[in-house]
Amino acid sequence: MSTLKQFRLLISPLFIARYYLIEDLRAILKKYRLKGNLIDIGCGSKPYKNYFSYIGNYRGIDFKTFSRNKDFPEDKPDYYFNHSYVKSLVLPFRDNQFGNAVSFQVLEHHADANRMISEMIRVTKSGGYLLISAPFIASLHESPHDYCRFTEYYFQKILKKYHCHILEIRKQGSLFSTIATLLCDYLNAFAAKNRVFYFFALMIFPPFLLFQYSSLLLDRLFPSDEIFFNYVILARKK
After folding, report:
1. Which of 61, 105, 134, 162 has the least C-beta neighbours within 10 A?
2. Which residues form the Methyltransferase type domain (predicted)?
3. Closest CA to 136 of 42, 24, 228
């Protein structure tokens, strides 16, 4: 990652959310060695590809109007959803085509979350890993395509139904980081109204950023299993 990208990430309104996701990715990939090729569903500009650098065949699929993430190195999808996908919701891949399947912060935007997970499992080989991140508490975003929020009980039920064994359920953040995330989401929406609001948001942003960093310590002092903002789930197909 370039120095500019690193700096943008460190001062981003979304810093705390990305920090937790990156830290959990590093921990999971250190503990479990994913083998074979990999498909990233809803990959966008592949912001987390570099963390899978030991996988030589990292592929991604998304719509041609995919969201770009300016805080990470930019790449583009290898495959694009065609018009029929919106109706069929069937991935354009063979059964067991990939060694692993991942999806980061996409599940809530899918019209049928159950179908998306079942398709991820279908295209993954037996013994392969499925890595999914999805929100538990989050503001409305990418409207009108924002449909669901999830709990661990949902993941336990759906993955068991499709014969997958859950290896990790990681809850990201706690009370204070959740508050920090929601406050920064509000500030982002405020800044997007017009230029005047944007410049005013820039002026008042430093305390918001400081609260994000402070919440890292506060989360450790006041942990919670009930209030947090995101999940990372790792499962293995039987």
Report:
1. 162
2. 40-132
3. 228
